[in-house]
Amino acid sequence: MSDTIADIRGFARGTARRPLLALGVLLVLAVPFLFPSQSDLATEALIFGLFAISVDIALGYAGLLTLAPAAFFGLGSYTVAKIVVDYDMSFWLGFPVAIVLALLLAFAVGYIPIKRRIGHVYFVLFTLAFGAIVYDFTFVTTSLTGGSDGLGFFSPPDLFGIDLGAQTPYYYFTLLLVAVVGFGTYVLIKSDYGDVLHATRQNELRMRYLGYDTNRELMIAWLISAGISAFAGAMYVGSVGIASPSDVSFALTGDVIIWIIVGGTGTLLGPFAAAIGLVFTQEILQSVWLEGYRMLLGILFVVFVFVLPDGLMGLIRGDE
Predict the structure, then answer these.
(1) Which helix (DSSP H) or strand (DSSP E) does residue 163 occupy?
(2) Residue 285 and residue 293 in contact, taking contact as beta carbons nearer than 8 Å
């Protein structure tokens, strides 16, 4: 009897969420027409939403707390800017190059703490050191990165005769890429691999006893997270037209971690929605109270860590 009631409640919650999801999809599709002046901001919000999804793969599903997500995001933006501005090569070439570089660096950073099983604490320290090195690197290698001035001032090229340098086309281009990558990530997480990854996070020792190579599963999740982060960074530089040190800053790292906590770790949709909502909130607060956004993030972090640990998705699902 109790199982039947639980099934009914679960169905009701799912039914109630469907209109909200449909409304959200329609709103996203109509943004350039309803709010044409906000198309650029909406594009950035979508990109940061994908960035939050990428970090949630490592944090929410693999249990790997990284303090260097912005390093991979910035790597994507700097790679595209470098290829276009300094080498005068194709904008599209920057995407695969950025992903390959991110995978190589992620493997180098994650190999010792993951493969050698020296613990998650050391993983945090390794990523912290890596993030600090990358951030300082952007300032001290002026000839390579442009220093504090950054690299950029370019627009994306035409695609099939469509000018992606315009707000609306690049918005829909971004929406398409985010939808494809996001759906692919969802399918992966819902596959057997996702189940193994979730079980590994819950009890890694037991999974090893069952014969699973948990080091390999964690490494794959870490590499996927880094690759998608770099991909998001590559899209971002196409939107703003410049790669700057803020793309690799610890402020951005802190932001994305809080987005994930607010949305709900291990949910994908929660961090995505929270990132979009808080990006727009930041824009509103900056015009009213410059320091208000940082204070809001601090308050949200405390509230959702200690009071609502399951995040917004936990509230929507009615988790107890």
Answers:
(1) strand 162-163
(2) yes
Residue 54 to residue 73: CA distance in whole angstroms: 10
In order of 114, 216, 277, the CA distances from 295 in angstroms are 35, 39, 16
Bridge partners of 152, per DSSP, are 242
What tens-digit pLDDT sequence spans the chain (320 residues)? 444 444 434 444 444 566 767 777 788 888 888 888 888 999 999 999 999 999 999 999 999 999 999 999 999 999 999 999 999 899 999 999 999 999 999 999 998 888 877 777 888 988 999 999 999 999 999 989 999 999 988 889 888 888 898 889 999 999 999 999 999 999 999 999 999 998 888 888 889 888 888 999 999 999 999 999 999 999 999 999 999 999 999 999 999 999 999 999 999 999 999 999 999 999 988 888 878 888 999 999 999 999 999 999 888 776 54
- Tell if the pTM clears 0.70, that is, is over it: yes
